[in-house]
């Protein structure tokens, strides 16, 4: 082979050798997570110092196999090449081709990840025993601190885990933490290390430092923790966005596709929040530019954002100017002529004859092309909506996906064109009534001759807004400036309130792009009844009952339709108290469809998670408010904490936007500011209210007194500009005869809140929300766990600690299926409407895994079959899912029950009828005898009638059997009757065993198999095996004797020879035992043969070995700990290194 052999030299290297030690040391220095394989085949050209790893192996045998393959498939070919370069090219190409072919055969898809990152993925899965479904996002070099000792290594951030690995000086350190277990994540600074990340779980704290880019690392950690909290909150798993543009081939950055996905998500979230855009809008890109503003004749420096359906602009200087241009409004996009004053200008014209001029664009040609592409897509969607008639495409689970999939069933009418004189209800093509006017226009009580100073002031406000519209534009494309905000703070005119709420909230965009959507929802939700509709009906007459609009059926009906339609649109929220109060106010100022879309904007974007079943969003903002109070009103904070007032006031203030605690005419001004400025207004106002009452609150002795002080203050907040007649307020109606509080002007209060607390920024609130979200959700999880344990502890024999650990393990199994796959949909197994005890459910595949880890009877090849039997027994309602209560009831009986309870559970698992009609009849009692005894004489084969039948499939070494009666299969209804009977028995703890059905031949055979396999790993296996043989023999005889007392005449076949043969045989050793069920022909059932539970129990009590086995205690905590380790790592912990870090946290 000559030159070829010299070029490819096989180097068998033990790492202990000098050369191997050098290579291994260099690898470890460069990468602390690199562990060099003990044997490697390296390729090295004679004149090069660089070597390529061709193959590696953990044993000499493995590496020898690799070398033999190379000799046969590669070395022969090398001899034909003339020079070293050709050999190098061929060898590298050949190896890469082998890898590509392997990927193709095994279905491994090519992705955008760089080669370096692919190596990290392999290393991550191998080091931490993670399945392929666990996706690595990124990895960073850092130090992990345990005590005072730092360990330099790598932190791996995957979708569901934070992992750390270090291997230095022969010492290995590993750490695995699930994101769902993290209770606190913060960036700290110390004297020694200015940047440190602290990760806290329920049981431990972990510190990481010496990052190359701590900001990027911490931001990614926050994102992944947020995804985990979202999973805990509403059971949503993470789905990667496959629509991202591909990474350029020559990109030097080691950025994974998932990291790019998460970065894009974060940017899109900030973009949507900044401009109040629909929640499915994705940012395509942004660039620096200038915008010509005609109202002040200036070029304003800022950034242009381009997404699928919008072009937006915001100035560098905060609040100076912002702009939203929906592409549906755009008519022309063109490049204008460049000049020294206006370089690279871009002109955009809209339908309402406004023209926007952008300049100083870096890549104008690309930008124009991108906008043109999006514009073409938008035009196509508009054409589709206008020209195609058909059914409204939606599903009951998700009513809409994206605007392009919506086809209106009726032409969309502009509701704003209808005058007050037109009819108050619109009947669309489907005959669904919807209010076409704001309720306030119908119930405005005003004298015809009345024109007082308040009306004059209202008229001046209207004129000011009309002048503003003339100067800055009107509608969604208007220039939004500081002057716009100032006008809002002075109060929006009654007649313009609905229009401007739609504009500032962004609801106008969703309503415009979904014509006919609301009417369709109303039609679908009519006549539907569930828990949400019951709660809605109960609260309808509690919604602003003092307002005349809701003192008759017209207003109540409109409120019912909006709330029911939203509950139908978003079943995860459904209906929550406080939604009725907010919605009733929306209906006063907006038309019915507009009120619906305003409610969508509130619940899904502006007040996220506020109105779900656990009001998580409001609790999060309550925590944020406490932090702000500590920072801005420190003198009051400790007092408020002692009184517990903050938690009480914040929920009612935030959930209803002050509508339930302030006079109506004042509270609507707060709503004006909220739609314009967002949640910061509510925080500012709440702080201003506390600050105004500092002295009185400091003198309060209890929370009741403090609530009275704040209640009286809020009652006194007035709106002197309001043209509405005064509406009596709940607090004022309940107030005592104490001297009234001096009036507080709402506009002055709002101005004061901006002056004193205007420095609160939206991005600061989001950071604080993240911190509080971790705390709130984990606290709710702990509360749920305690409630579940408190409920179930009296029903089982487990301790509180064991139940808490079991609940955590059960829920982890459910959550794991959300991202590592499962046979059923994870969302189907989580029903928030159920009691906490029954919310999380697992299917059989998950139960099978937990059965193998926790149940003492799980061993041998029969384990899965036994798990299936127990699963069917525990699944009382037959939905193929079991909840935590059902799971614990089975586990408790198997682990902590007395001898009778354990045997009763075992008996029930085998007496349950088999629901499968496809399976054949089971084997006979004769075969059960052969299962435990050898050399049965052929003479006893006539004990039962022999019928030849075809042998069906064998699984895991056992014939799958089913039970049939003379009339055929047992019905599923009979199954449920059995389960219901046993369920009642468990609940009453009754010991009456006479109600249990008898065990027939086929069931007895399966019970024998189960008992044999139970003992396959027990130290006293032989004794148990002989004891089982004796019990089996005794029960066979009992069953034969029982036939004499049956109603049918006894068979004339000799039934004694088989029993005598059985008693005369010795029980064989396990290693000699075969599975005769697979070797001889099956026979039919003896219909009359049966035994009772009392007979089974009495027979087993005759064998001390079996009694001792079933009576022995089970160490549950040890099994739970082992199960947690295996579930977290995919394998049990084996390392005893001093540097081993706990693999479980939380």
Task: Name the features.
eight-stranded antiparallel sheet, alpha+beta, 42 helices, 1146 residues
Structure, explained:
The longest helix is centred in the C-terminal third of the chain and has 31 residues, at 762-792. The protein is of the alpha+beta class. Mean pLDDT is 76; it is low at 1-34, 388-430, 730-735, 915-972, 985-991, 1047-1083 and 1130-1146. The chain is globular and about 105 Å long. A hairpin with a 3-residue loop joins strand 8 and strand 9. The strands form nine sheets. The protein has an eight-stranded antiparallel sheet with strand order 14-15-16-10-11-12-13-19. A seven-stranded antiparallel sheet has the order 6-5-4-3-9-8-7. Helix 12 (497-505) packs parallel to helix 18 (592-606) and helix 17 (579-589) crosses helix 18 (592-606). The two termini are 61 Å apart. 48% of the residues lie in helices and 13% in strands.
